[in-house]
Design a protein that fits this description.
- The complex is a heterotrimer of chains A (409), B (393) and C (259).
- Chain A is of the alpha/beta class and 409 residues long.
- In chain A, 31% of the residues lie in helices and 21% in strands.
- Chain A is globular, with a radius of gyration of 22 Å.
- Chain B is 37% helix and 20% strand.
- In chain B, a hairpin with a 2-residue loop joins β5 and β6.
- In chain B, α7 crosses α12.
- By secondary structure, chain C is an alpha/beta fold.
- A 9-stranded mixed sheet of chain C has the order 1-15-13-5-7-11-12-4-14, covered by helices on one side.
- In chain C, α5 runs parallel beside α6.
- The longest helix of chain C is centred in the middle third of the chain and has 11 residues.
- The chains are: A alpha/beta (409), B alpha/beta (393), C alpha/beta (259).
- At the A-C interface, α5 and α6 of A face β2, α4 and β8 of C.
- Chain B: This is Thiolase family protein.
- Chain B: It holds the Pfam family Thiolase_C_1.
Chain lengths: 409, 393, 259
C-alpha cells in the first residue's frame, strides 16, 4: 500500500541542499544493450538466435548452446517474486542515503531470474510486471511492479527514483507562444506540476488564454542570453523539469534559401536557444538532483524527427535540430552527474501553420504534450510521437540510405 | 544412499603441514603483499624450511591486484617450479590443497607454500564489491546489494520459508561459534554472544542481521603441502588428505539457491575417505552466513535437506559438544580476511588433527572435515569444495 | 566672410551656451524591431554576447560581441534601403556625403493628436499649419515628427493588433510634398519606421520610404527626446556606421540647440 505523495514542505534555508549521488554506473558492453531498451521504454532481454533462450544478466555467449548470436528482443514482462530483502545497510552512498531499499529475485516467465528493484506493493510469491528503467545513473535497472493496478502506484518511493514524475515538481515550459508549449503547460498542470511558461518579445500581442490559466507567465527569449540568465536568476533554483519547446520551423531547403539570415534565425532560436538555456539552468539543475520530492529531475527537448534524418523540404531547420540532438547528448552526460535525465521527443510534422501544406498524418500539439507527461512518468529517454516519427525511426534502423533518398526527393 | 567405489587416486604419501595464521586486524594500512609475505615468512620460520626451498607457490587474494602469484615470486625472492593463483574465494583453500597435493604426488615439485591473504583498507571492501564479477557489476551491485549481504539475504529468506527455519535456529550456529571464539586469542570478537543478543541485533538486509555477517578484516593464513618423507626429514607432523571434492555452478535448476555444490559429489567424498559422516571428530564449514552453514550440514550429509534446523537444535556445536563445529570461532567470530577466510577452516582442521589447536583443541580429534564455498557471481554461490583430513593427534 | 571658427562651436557647447540633446534610444535586447510576416527575412534584434568580463576568458578586460540589424534600434535609412532609391548615386551609408550628417531640423509636435489616435496621420494641412506659426520649412532640413511615442512601454510602442501595427506617421501626400516642394533632407520619427503602422495599405505603400529614398533623402526612426527640441533652430548630427553598401545603420543621433 503506497501512501499518496504529499506536497513537499518549503525548504529549510539553513540546511545544505543534499548533493546528488548516483547508483553504481558500471555496466558491461553487453549490459548496455539493456540501457538502450530502458531508454526506449521496452522490456527487452538478450535472446539466443539459435536456441531461443532468453538470458540474463547480459551474456556474450548463450549458456544453453554457446552461440554468440544474442539479440536484444522484446520479452514477456511477467514473472513471480520468489524472494526479497530489504537492504538496510548498503555499501555505497546512493543507496545508503535511500535505505531501507527493497529488492527481490524475480523468476521471469520467459526463463531467467532477475534481481530487481521492487515496488512497495509487490508481494512474495505473487505475479509481477517487469520493466527496465533508467536509474539515476542513467543505466538500465530491472524494476518489478505488481501485475495489477494498485492505489497511488506512481507515488512509490523507489519507482519515483526511476522516473521524473511531474507531480509536485516545478516546470519551465520555454515557449508559451507555441501550440505545443501551451498544450504541454496545460498537461503538466493536470499532472500535478507547478508550471512557468516563457514568453518571448512581450511587446508582441499575447493572450495567455485558458490553456495557461493555472500557469505563471514569465518573460523568456531564448535567443537572448541576458533574458535567459535573468529568468534563471529568478527561478533557476526551482526549475525541476525544463521543457525546451523551441519549435522554430521554417520551410525551405539549402540552395534556394539565398543567404543566411533565415538560417541564422533558426540557429539563434533553436541551437543558441538550447545553449543559453543549458548554460543558465543546467548548473542549478545538476546540483539539485537529489533535493527531495521536488528535486530537479529532467530536461525535455521537443525535436522534429527530421533532426535524425534531414527532410529537404525543411532542410536547414532539420540541420539546426540535428545540431541540438548532438548537443543533447553532451547535456545528457553533464546532467547525469546530478541524476537529471535528458528526454528527447521526436515528433512528426505538427498540426500547426508551419506544416500547413504537409499532408496528414500530423501530430496534434496535445499528443506531444501527452507524450511528454507520459515520458516523465514512465522514465524513458527517447520518445517518438506520431506515425511519421515512428516510421522514420523504423526506417532509420532498417535502411537509412533509403530514407535519405526519400526525404531528399 | 548408494556409495559407488571411487575410481580416484588416493592422496597417498602427501601431507599438509605447518598451518600458520597471521593474526587479523580490522583495518590495515599495509598491502596484501605485506600480509602474504608475513605468512610466507611464518611458514619458513615454523617449518625450518627456507623460503628459497619452497619450489611451489599457490596464492589466493582479492586485494593483491594488479599482482598475481608470478609477481610475488620476484617480490618475495621465490624461485619455484610450480605456481598457481586460485581466485575461488571461499573455495580457494580446498582447491589449493587439492592442486598442490597432486603436484607433489606427481613429483612436479616438493614443497608447496599455499597462502591466502588480504588487506582491508578503509575502502577496499567496497572496491572489491564493485569489481567482483561482471554479472554482479551488471545485475547486482546497481541494486544497492552492496556485496553479498543482499544476495544471501534473498537466499536465506527463501530457504527459511521453504524449510520452516527460524532466525533463532541460525542463531544457535552463531552463538556456538562465538563461544568457541572466546578460546581463540586471534578472534576479533572477544565478548560472549547470547541468543537474545543475536535476535535483537540490527537488521542489515532482512532476514540477515548483524551477527549473521562476517567482519571484513586484514590477515593471512597458510600451510605447506609436501610428501610424507619430506615432512619427516624436516621433523614436521603432517595431516593426511583422505578425500576431497570440488564442484562449480551446480544445481542450476534451483530458482533460488537451496543447495551448495557439495551435494553433487558427497557420496564420492565419503567413499574415497572410506568413512561415514558420523565418524568425523569435528567439522569446519564455510560460514560466511549461518544459513550457508546450515545448508552445508545438509549437503555434506549430516542430515537430510530441510533438517538443518532440527540438527542444530539437537546438537551442541561447541568445542566440547557432541558436534564440534568451527572450533576457531569461524569467520563469524574471528573475522573474514578476504581469501584467507577460505583457509581459516582448513588451517584449523589441520591443527585439530595434529593436536596443535591449543585452546580450541577438540579432545582426541583425529579426523575432520573442512569445506569451502564461494563466488556469489550473480544470484548464488558458484564454488564449493570439501576435504577430509586425518592425523595422529 | 571669414569662415566661422569651429572652436567657437566647441566653446559654446563647453560653456553650455549650446545644449546637446541625445535623441538615441539605448540598444537593448528587448527593444522592439520591425515585424514582418514570418515568411520574410527578419531584422535581427540586439544581441550582446560577452567575450570576457575580467574572468578566465580575459582576466583584465570586459568586452562584448554584438549582433543587430542595420534597422535595429535608433537607426538611419539610406536611399538604397528602398527600391525607389536603388539606382541613385552615393545611396548607401558608406558613400553618402558627410555634409549631410550635420543638418538643421524642424520639429512638428503632434503628441496630442498621437495620444488621441494611434493611427494619427501627418497631413500637408497639418504641416502648413505648423508653417503658419514657425515659418516655411527651409530646404535641406530634417523634419522630425514628435509623437511622444518613445515614452511608451515596449508593448504599446509596437502596438501590434490582429491587423498589424497601429502607430502614427505621414500620409502619402505630405511625404511627396515635403520631398518635392520643401526639399527636406530627411524625415524622422519616434516610431519603429518613418511610415505609419498601417502604411502598407497606403497608396503608394510605405510613402515615406517611397518618396524619401526615391529622391535620395534619408530616414531616422526610433528617436527619443524630441520634446526637448525647439520647433526650429536645432541641428542634428547623424553619422551612420560606414557599412559597405549598407542600407542603413544604428547610430547615435545628437541634437545641438540653444538652451
Amino acid at each position: 500500500m503506497v501512501e499518496p505523495l504529499q506536497q513537499p514542505e518549503r525548504r529549510n534555508p539553513l540546511r545544505r541542499t543534499r548533493q546528488p549521488s548516483l547508483p553504481p554506473v558500471g555496466r558491461s558492453r553487453a549490459g548496455m544493450l539493456l540501457t538502450r531498451a530502458a531508454a526506449e521504454g521496452r522490456f527487452a532481454l538478450q535472446r539466443c538466435d539459435e536456441c531461443g533462450a532468453f538470458c540474463y544478466p547480459a551474456h556474450d555467449v548463450c549458456p544453453g548452446c554457446l552461440s554468440t548470436d544474442l539479440k536484444l528482443t522484446d520479452a514477456p514482462d511477467g514473472g513471480t517474486l520468489v524472494s526479497e530483502t530489504v537492504v538496510r545497510v548498503p555499501a555505497d552512498v546512493y543507496f545508503r542515503e535511500r535505505a531501507p531499499w527493497r529488492i527481490g529475485m524475480v523468476k521471469l516467465d520467459c526463463g531467467p531470474t532477475v534481481i530487481a528493484h521492487l515496488h512497495a506493493d509487490c508481494g512474495e510469491a505473487e505475479p509481477v510486471r517487469m520493466s527496465l528503467q533508467l536509474d539515476k545513473a542513467g543505466q538500465a535497472a530491472a524494476f518489478a511492479r505488481p501485475a495489477g493496478d494498485t492505489a497511488n502506484a506512481a507515488d512509490d518511493r523507489q519507482w519515483r527514483e526511476m522516473t521524473a514524475s511531474p507531480k509536485f515538481r516545478r516546470v519551465l515550459v520555454t515557449n508559451g507562444r507555441s501550440a505545443v508549449g501551451q498544450a504541454t503547460a496545460a498537461a503538466l498542470v493536470a499532472a500535478g506540476a507547478k508550471v512557468h511558461v516563457g514568453i518571448a518579445e512581450p511587446w508582441k500581442p499575447f493572450e495567455a488564454g485558458k490553456a495557461l490559466e493555472a500557469c505563471t507567465v514569465v518573460p523568456l527569449d531564448v535567443t537572448d542570453e541576458r533574458s535567459v540568465r535573468d529568468l534563471a536568476a529568478d527561478i533557476g533554483g526551482k526549475v525541476d523539469i525544463l521543457i525546451n519547446t523551441g519549435e522554430h520551423t521554417r520551410p525551405g531547403g539549402l540552395i534556394g534559401r539565398h543567404g543566411t539570415a533565415t538560417i541564422m534565425d533558426e540557429l539563434s532560436q533553436t541551437y543558441l536557444g538550447f545553449v543559453h538555456l543549458a548554460q543558465a539552468f543546467g548548473p542549478a539543475m545538476r546540483a539539485r538532483g537529489a533535493d527531495g520530492i521536488d528535486s530537479a529531475a529532467a530536461w525535455v527537448n521537443v525535436f522534429s524527427v527530421y533532426a535524425l534524418a534531414n527532410w529537404a523540404a525543411y532542410g536547414t531547420t532539420s540541420a539546426a535540430e540535428a545540431a541540438c540532438v548532438s548537443l543533447s547528448h553532451c547535456l545528457r552526460g553533464e546532467l547525469r552527474a546530478g541524476g537529471v535525465r535528458v528526454v528527447n521527443l521526436f515528433t512528426g510534422p505538427l498540426d500547426t501553420e508551419w506544416f500547413q501544406t504537409v499532408p496528414p498524418p500530423k501530430v496534434a500539439p496535445k499528443a506531444v504534450a501527452k507524450a511528454i507527461v507520459s515520458a516523465l512518468e514512465s522514465g524513458v529517454e527517447e520518445v517518438f510521437v506520431g506515425d511519421v516519427a515512428e516510421d522514420v525511426r523504423q526506417r532509420l534502423e532498417a535502411n537509412p540510405k533509403a530514407l535519405e533518398r526519400d526525404l531528399g526527393a | 544412499m548408494a556409495k559407488p567405489a571411487s575410481r580416484r587416486t588416493p592422496y597417498d604419501g602427501v601431507v599438509i603441514t605447518t598451518p600458520v595464521t597471521i593474526p587479523y586486524q580490522r583495518y590495515s594500512i599495509e598491502s596484501a603483499q605485506w600480509w602474504i609475505g608475513r605468512a610466507l615468512r611464518a611458514l619458513a620460520d615454523a617449518s625450518g624450511i627456507a623460503a628459497r626451498d619452497f619450489d611451489g607457490f599457490c596464492l589466493s587474494s582479492f586485494t593483491v591486484g594488479p599482482d598475481t602469484a608470478i609477481g610475488l615470486t620476484q617480490h618475495f625472492g621465490l624461485s619455484v617450479r610450480w605456481l598457481d593463483t586460485i581466485p575461488l574465494g571461499g573455495a580457494s583453500a580446498i582447491a589449493a590443497l587439492r592442486r598442490a597435493a597432486r603436484a607433489v604426488q606427481a613429483g612436479d615439485c616438493d614443497v608447496v607454500a599455499c597462502v591466502a591473504g588480504d588487506t582491508n583498507h578503509v575502502d577496499s571492501f567496497r572496491r572489491t564489491l564493485e569489481n567482483f564479477s561482471r554479472f554482479a557489476q551488471d545485475a547486482v551491485y546497481p541494486y544497492g546489494a552492496g556485496g553479498a549481504n543482499a544476495s544471501f539475504a534473498m537466499i536465506a529468506r527463501h530457504y527459511m520459508k521453504r524449510f520452516g527455519v527460524g532466525r533463532e535456529d541460525l542463531g544457535r550456529i552463531a552463538v556456538a561459534q562465538r563461544a568457541n571464539a572466546l578460546n581463540n586469542p586471534h578472534a576479533l570478537m572477544k565478548t560472549p554472544l547470547t541468543v537474545e543478543q543475536y535476535m535483537a541485533a540490527r537488521p542489515i538486509a532482512d532476514p540477515i542481521h548483524l551477527y549473521d555477517c562476517v567482519m571484513p578484516c586484514a590477515g593471512a593464513e597458510a600451510f605447506l603441502v609436501m610428501r610424507e618423507e619430506t615432512a619427516a626429514a624436516a621433523g614436521l607432523k603432517g595431516a593426511k588428505i583422505l578425500a576431497s571434492i570440488e564442484r562449480h555452478n551446480a544445481r542450476i535448476d534451483d530458482v533460488v539457491q537451496n543447495h551448495g555444490g557439495w551435494v553433487a559429489d558427497i557420496d564420492d567424498l565419503y567413499a574415497m575417505a572410506g568413512l561415514r559422516p558420523d565418524a568425523l571428530d569435528f567439522v569446519q564449514t564455510y560460514d560466511d552466513y549461518p544459513v550457508i552453514v546450515m545448508m552445508q550440514l545438509e549437503d555434506l550429509g549430516f542430515c537430510a535437506k530441510g533438517e538443518g534446523a532440527a540438527f542444530v537444535r539437537a546438537h551442541d556445536l561447541t568445542i566440547g559438544g557432541d558436534f564440534p563445529h568451527n572450533t576457531s570461532g569461524g569467520q563469524l567470530s574471528v573475522g573474514q580476511a578476504g581469501a584467507a577466510g577460505a583457509y581459516l577452516g582448513v588451517t584449523e582442521a589441520i591443527r585439530q588433527v595434529l593436536g596443535s589447536a591449543g585452546p580450541t583443541q577438540v579432545a582426541g580429534a583425529r579426523t575432520g572435515l573442512a569445506s569451502g564455498f564461494g563466488m556469489i557471481n550473480y544470484d548464488r554461490g558458484l564454488s564449493s569444495g570439501a576435504v577430509i583430513v586425518s592425523g595422529d593427534g | 566672410m571669414a569662415a566661422p571658427d569651429p572652436l567657437d562651436f566647441a566653446a559654446a557647447i563647453a560653456t553650455g551656451a549650446l545644449r546637446v540633446v541625445d535623441l538615441t534610444a539605448t540598444l537593448t535586447p528587448d527593444f522592439p524591431v520591425i515585424v514582418l510576416p514570418p515568411e520574410f527575412g527578419q531584422a535581427a534584434p540586439v544581441r550582446i554576447r560577452e567575450i570576457s568580463r575580467y574572468d578566465g576568458r580575459g582576466p583584465g578586460w570586459y568586452w562584448n560581441n554584438i549582433t543587430l540589424g542595420e534597422h535595429t534600434g535608433t537607426h538611419f535609412d539610406a536611399p538604397i534601403h528602398w527600391y525607389t532609391g536603388k539606382d541613385l548615386p552615393n545611396n548607401a551609408v558608406d558613400t553618402l556625403p558627410a555634409e549631410h550628417m550635420i543638418a538643421p531640423a524642424c520639429v512638428i509636435d503632434c503628441s496630442g493628436e498621437a495620444a488621441a489616435d494611434a493611427d494619427f496621420l501627418l497631413t500637408r494641412a497639418r504641416v502648413e499649419a505648423w508653417e503658419e506659426e514657425h515659418g516655411r520649412i527651409p530646404r535641406g532640413h530634417w523634419v522630425l515628427l514628435r509623437t511622444d511615442w518613445s515614452k511608451r512601454s515596449p508593448r504599446d510602442y509596437a502596438n501590434l493588433k490582429e491587423d498589424g501595427a497601429h502607430t502614427p506617421g505621414p500620409d502619402a501626400e505630405v511625404m511627396k510634398w515635403l520631398v518635392e516642394e520643401r526639399g527636406i533632407l530627411g524625415f524622422g520619427t519616434e516610431t519603429i519606421g518613418t511610415d505609419a503602422g498601417q502604411a502598407s495599405h497606403f497608396e503608394p505603400p510605405h510613402p515615406a520610404h517611397h518618396f524619401l529614398h526615391g529622391a535620395g533623402r534619408y530616414g531616422l526612426q526610433c528617436l527619443c527626446n524630441l520634446d526637448r527640441l525647439p520647433p526650429t533652430g536645432a541641428i542634428l548630427i547623424t553619422a551612420p556606421l560606414k557599412i559597405l553598401n549598407g542600407s542603413g545603420s544604428p547610430l547615435r543621433v545628437l541634437a545641438v540647440t540653444r538652451p
